[in-house]
């Protein structure tokens, strides 16, 4: 009888130990959301029409940033607007980030109790800033443009709304062709990145004019033509009124491609 009691005690202890191990294996972790404009926004860029842009500020305001463990894996090219998922977590609030500041992606916020797993899709909406220098606008670009001795000080304010749904987050580097991100191990930390690619609007002066990016980008010439006394201070309504219709349509189309996730593509969500 005493031997049976000992066996029961040992079995109970093993059961508690297994429960503790299982609990540790499924312990929540930290998921961090970053926003990144890359070196072209932080350090400056050459547009397709040879304007050298330097951004003093490049504000973006995002809301409802959501990370997903998609099932099946989400592909924005083929799955269009539908993300099916087993788990999703939302970063509460509206967040304004200046992509021109610092020398690395900016932390937008973090979720400290995220379930472990692979977060292979992310979405967010563009929203007007609630206060501060970007108040009332979702995108504000401030800086200087220079070309052939001409200078334009610009302040472009866009109350542009919409959203992006993006597939797997991966990055490229000199020694890694493609490194996937988003795996959250038990008790660990992982990241999702909301990437903003200014070249889709202005083009890339270091690429051929025939490059697909340069064929679809507006460039800066149409914007410089609207400057008065070397200053361009304009909002989206003003651009719609002042730009030629085809140029304005090109700008709007470019904005639908502004959002990426690292090197990954996104599907644009109509507001």
Give a verbal description of the structure.
The protein has 271 residues and is of the alpha+beta class. It has one domain. Helices cover 23% and strands 40% of the residues. The chain has seven helices and 17 strands. The strands form four sheets. Strands 2, 3, 4, 7, 8, 9, 10, 15 and 17 form a nine-stranded mixed sheet that branches. β2 and β3 form a beta hairpin. About 6% of the residues have low confidence.
Helix content: 10-25%
Largest sheet: 9 strands, mixed
Which segments are poorly predicted (pLDDT under 50) over 5 or more consecutive residues? Answer: 7-23
Please give the domain count. 1
Keywords:
nine-stranded mixed β-sheet, 23% helix, 271 residues, 40% strand, alpha+beta, elongated, 7 helices
Give the gist of this structure.
The protein is an alpha+beta fold. Helices cover about 25% and strands about 40% of the residues. Strands 2, 3, 4, 7, 8, 9, 10, 15 and 17 form a 9-stranded mixed β-sheet that branches. Strands 5-1-14-16 form a 4-stranded mixed β-sheet, with no helix packed on it.
Question: How does the SSE layout of this entry go?
Answer:
Layout: H1 2-25, E1 29-36, H2 38-43, E2 45-46, E3 52-70, E4 85-98, E5 106-114, E6 117-118, E7 121-126, E8 139-147, E9 150-158, E10 162-166, E11 170-171, E12 179-180, E13 183-184, E14 189-196, H3 199-202, H4 212-216, H5 221-224, E15 231-235, H6 236-242, H7 245-255, E16 259-260, E17 266-269
């Amino acid at each position: 009888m005493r031997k049976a009691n000992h066996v029961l005690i040992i079995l109970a202890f093993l059961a508690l130990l297994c429960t503790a191990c299982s609990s540790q294996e499924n312990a929540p972790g930290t998921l961090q959301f970053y926003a990144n404009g890359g070196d072209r926004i932080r350090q400056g860029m050459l547009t397709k029409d040879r304007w050298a842009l330097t951004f003093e500020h490049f504000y973006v305001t995002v809301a409802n940033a959501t990370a997903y463990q998609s099932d099946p894996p989400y592909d924005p090219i083929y799955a269009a607007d539908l993300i099916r998922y087993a788990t999703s977590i939302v970063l509460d609030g509206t967040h304004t980030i200046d992509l021109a500041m610092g020398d690395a992606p900016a932390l937008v916020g973090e979720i400290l109790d995220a379930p472990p797993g692979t977060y292979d899709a992310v979405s967010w909406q563009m929203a007007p800033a609630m206060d501060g220098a970007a108040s009332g606008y979702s995108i504000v670009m401030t800086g200087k443009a220079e070309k052939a001795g001409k200078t334009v000080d610009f302040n472009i304010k866009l109350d542009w709304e919409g959203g992006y749904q993006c597939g797997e987050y991966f990055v490229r580097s000199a020694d890694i062709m493609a490194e996937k991100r988003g795996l959250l191990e038990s008790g660990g930390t992982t990241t999702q990145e909301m990437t903003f690619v200014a070249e889709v609007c202005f083009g890339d002066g270091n690429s051929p004019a025939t490059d697909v990016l340069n064929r679809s980008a507006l460039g800066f010439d149409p914007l410089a033509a609207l400057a008065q006394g070397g200053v361009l201070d304009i909002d989206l309504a003003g651009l719609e009124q002042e730009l030629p219709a085809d140029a304005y349509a090109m700008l709007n189309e470019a904005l639908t491609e502004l959002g990426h996730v690292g090197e990954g593509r996104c599907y644009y969500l109509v507001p």
